Amino acid sequence: MNKPLQAFIIFCFALAISPVNAQQIIEGVVKDQETQQALPYASLQLLPSKESYLTNTDGTFQFQISDSITQFSISYIGYNSKLIRINDADFYEIQLQRNPEELNKIFISSEDNKANAIILEAIDRKPQNNPKQKFSTYQYSSYNKFIIDNQKEELNISADSSNAGIKKVIEDGRNYLAEKSSLIQFEQKKGEKETIEATRTAGFKEPVYELLTTKVQSNSWYEKDYVIFGSEYASPLSNKAFKNYNFKILDTTSTQRPAYVILFQPKKNKNVAHLEGVLYIDTENYGLQKAIAQLKGKANLEAVQEFSYYPKENIWFPKQNTVTIKPGNQGKGISIFGGNIDLGRLPEKSDNNEKLYLKSVTTYQDVEFNIPLNLKSKQAKVQLSSEAIKTSDSTWQKLRTIPFTSRDQKTFQRVDSVIKAENIDRKIELIQHFNNGYFPLGFFDFDLRRIIKYNRYEGFRLGLGGVTNDNLSEKFRLQGYGVYGFKDREAKYSFGGGVLLNKKKQTWLNAIYTDDIAEVGSFFYLTDARVYSLFEPRLVNINYYYKYRKSQISLQHRFLPELLSEFQISRNSIEQTRGYIYNHNNQLFSSYKLTILTASFRWTPFSDYLQADDRSIEIKEGYPIFSFQAEQALNNILGSDFAFTKFATKINYTYKRLNQTATQFILEGNYAVGDLPLTHTFHAYPNNPNKGSVFQRFSVAGRRTFETMYYSEFFIDKLVNLQVKHFFRPLELGKRSKPQLVLITRHAIGGMKDKIKHLGINFEKLDRWYNESGFEVNNIFAGFGLNFAYRYGYYHLPEITDNISFKFTFYFKL
Description:
It is built from eleven helices and 47 strands. The protein is mainly beta and 814 residues long.
């Protein structure tokens, strides 16, 4: 007997001896008989079991029944009910007839919609029904179970696992599973804090931070936005609910505490990110008893939140959150962690041609109100306990509020083997490092920024560099690079290392020596986040550098999750690449030494962070973001020739809207006083090559640069710079084409106190307002776009084309 036939016989035999109840899938749609429009959230009741269901936003339904179910009823307020007998039909199209008498019951009058009145009352009573407004403190425990699975019932059979045919049939099909147990505490003015006490993810020994830092589902509908998997949607109970949604009363429940069942649907002329669903509003205190929301498109999403009533406090508090995501009609994958990898991505179908779905269930228990708490005001939003990944199986059994089945256990074992076989850990590591500009290989992370560059002074600049990682040591690191410029025919290099002094505060003491070149007038905040791009826009056109040899000792320290700092002392030897000379007290300097003390800070007070033992991860970027840096050059210290003081501060504020538009403001001020050579002055971020025609100047546009300002046109010792961008909603034209229009305006003014001290170079001192405006169309195809800018005002040039900039943009991320 051949093996496939043998497998089939064994499989049939196994099914025959296993007790399996006959099941039938019932599918259909409910429509208005007259208009043929779908009726969302119509009530279905199975008979005789009296189990209840609701249709989806498009009127469709699907449920599974046993042989004991013979019929089901359909009801919708304003329509006559209908009783449907179950037969062998594959699909039920049910048409309901309007009942004018029932419709009249919906309205108090022709002007006042009862549903609107109920929602308005629910909004007015938020101070009594929103726990964050009602209580001074509260605390609860939560358990979350997160799975990616198929819709197949597990077969209650067993077979020889060596038989490939049977193994394929009875394989449970689950692809992913994670669980988490947390303690959530709330205190007025300090907000809600989460401590993750236990977590594990199938196949991973370490925490999967991409999942831990994703807000799966909000616990309150009373806020402005409702969040599902990190995406914000307008809440139907926000103060602007009537601007975004239409409401209609569907029913009134007949439970111990009756509730109005209110349908909410987005207004057609609103482009805000929205949901559609039903709210169960308590008829007595107008608190929320239950909420169901759906979203259909690339993904079919359903979010359900159930509440428990606490009579002593007269409040409904969350009991269980459930989010289910299934592939939509367009058949596109749903990225859960970000990144184009197999794990954490929900494809349209599994290998055995079954649709997959993602499901996250969170339960709330041990709820306490107005108890003494002493939360630290500077505590991170989410704290990962150092013992969270060491939780024993016996402890997990106590923490779980959702059954952990034998199938779940098999999932952990199966996914572990899949991750090893497909090297998923490595794929995730590569993506995480690549987005920061590194390629990890063993104990060394190669710096992708060092491999190849191009500028007008060095020509092509090739080299290698990087830093050691935890595979070598968690207590120290070594770093360095070596590069060669083919036009200037000179090598540059850097080497050094650091010692970890405090793991939790990420305190590093570093010592580095560098022999390289730097752009004249450039300024960088030490604490600004590292930015990596395949193209470095300004770099290709820079032609004015100075040479430096720098010995530095620095201390990096995170005072708070939101407050990053770096302190540095450096000794710099400066030489010129052009004929520049600095006249200091009638003494001419083309080369000089500087000893500089630097203190730099980055403060993000409105961002939320996850704090682990070895890292702080920003889980929600808040605005404004503040940067500050002070530099003091010391005269006659370690051979230093000059003394000067520099201050710089930057405020970045971005206002993001639910309609997927955003407006960004960047305001920066720079000020210097003292004996300041040109190399250490400021420029205003120019990015226009010194070439004749518009098309000769065609190059890469920068992120926050003046595209019409020519290189070396201005040098200043004080500068105010304002940049404003308005991002329109991207157009979805395909996987590789998502054009987005961005309007841009930039303005700067500055000055130079002692311009006559700087010899051998001509420049302006920007003592009048410099203005340029334009637009970008980004991501036209494969990350590429176009940029246009026009220069106007006091520094407008006589030749019209000299005021025009036309360039391409490039935004790319894995």
